[in-house]
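Changelog-linked ticket: nicotinamide-adenine-dinucleotide example.
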Amino acid sequence: MRETVRSGVGYPELHMIIDGEKIPVGHRRVHSVVNPASGAALGALPLADAADLDRALAAAQRGFRLWRDAAPQQRAAVLAGAAGLLRERQEEIARIATLEEGKTLAESRIEVMMNVTLFEFYAGECHRLYGRQLVRPTGMRSTVVCEPVGPVAAFAPWNFPIGNPGRKLGAPIAAGCSVILKAAEEAPASALAVLQCLLDAGLPKEVGQAVFGVPDEVSRHLLRSPIIRKLSFTGSTVVGKHLMKLAAEDCKRTTMELGGHGAVLVFDDVDVEQVLNAMVAAKFRNAGQVCISPTRFIVQQDVYEGFLSGFVQRAGQWRVGNGLEEGVQMGPMANPRRPEAMERLIGGAVSAGARLHSGGARIGTRGYYYAPTVLSEIPLSAAIMNEEPFGPVALINPFRTEEEMIGEANRLPYGLASYSWTNDVGRQKRLAREVESGMFCINTTVLGGPDSPFGGVKWSGHGSENGPEGVMSCMVVKAIHEG
Ligand code: NAD
């Protein structure tokens, strides 16, 4: 049954955007988009067939020729114009994102604004894609220039339905590439709204396109094509490794933003209340479905009991409900796979001997709600201590020494975001050097910004999004030597 949306703004008709044309369902297979707050259908999404993908590839090839030669002013005007349109359409787009993904409206509004600032930053970067001139004897000239890599195939997941597509589109467009975006089938209207802002701001129709489909079919088709010169993927490590192998067949460049298992080191010289105020909100943001979510709390023994009891108390009071409702702090999980994963991982941890302090169960039978959960004394062998839980669960274990704490932070093959809380300046420096992660926080949860590279090391991927690095990852260098 199709749900009537009583949010003040309806859920839009769904389509793909190929070569500037809005492609409706027609004869195609469909995916039913569902509201995770209720489980009711929101709309039917057309899934691409091989002819659709070939058409998108042909357009992307033309789009690249066109856009690589466009003046930086033109590219910058498109990005800045799209930022303005996103700002104007903030409320409408935020509501769509909450309907599709479940996060609170406040979070969706922030996500729109993060995209605004990213497009504004990238607009500036269009003018700064510098190369360099090498020092050579008189009469010779050697120059290094940066050129756009070529058409990009970009795959964005559902957890940041506005922000992920924004990153995937913004960087190639700033660099002078064309891009075929396959955003998550669970949250297509948010992605389409972002692309529509770019098209309305003057992006040529061949340069940015949006397809949806059976993920494995789409990625195999696009990555098999020699037209595509770069893969950009955000999602799980297991899918990322598979796509890297496909990309390797044609030596395509890759930017991989994969999973994490965020370590949080809390030392005994901190104000525990201050740490809890920051970390509990960070943990339950977007129901924990965030790649930089704080997950393993590695707490020094003298503050352990106070930290654990404070966390449990706050988790018990966290207000869970429909993200569109006022006062709600955490919405449902985004799809039925997530509460199922929570049951498996949390159940497994408890069976292995972990202590369950709060949550540990679904809420209600309608929608995909899962209660904010706190576990402690979890054996390191439990699956949840090794696999990204991607849900509203805090894992809190006691440790004695700094060395042991760093050892636990670096135990896993993941290295995306890590957090530390200590007032010892010498220790802050040691941690910043020793902890293996692409992003590291000292006494804050605020990591990143439009000007800051976002990405991981080890199994968390490679390459960066955001910052000058994000645009440069869509460029290649050429050395030109003149005698
Ligand atoms: P998944 O791993 O199957 O999918 C993750 C994303 O990859 C989705 O957007 C999906 O459409 C896409 N995908 C899957 N197979 C693909 C393929 N062959 N080609 C192209 N794209 C493909 O599973 P899921 O249930 O959506 O998420 C499970 C796990 O993924 C989570 O537990 C989390 O670890 C990870 N994840 C990470 C992020 C992130 O921001 N890094 C975002 C979403 C999911």
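Closing comment: Example verified and attached. The longest helix spans residues 105-125. Residues 155, 157-159, 184, 215-216, 219, 234-236, 239, 243, 257-259, 291, 337, 388, 390 surround nicotinamide-adenine-dinucleotide (CB under 6 Å).
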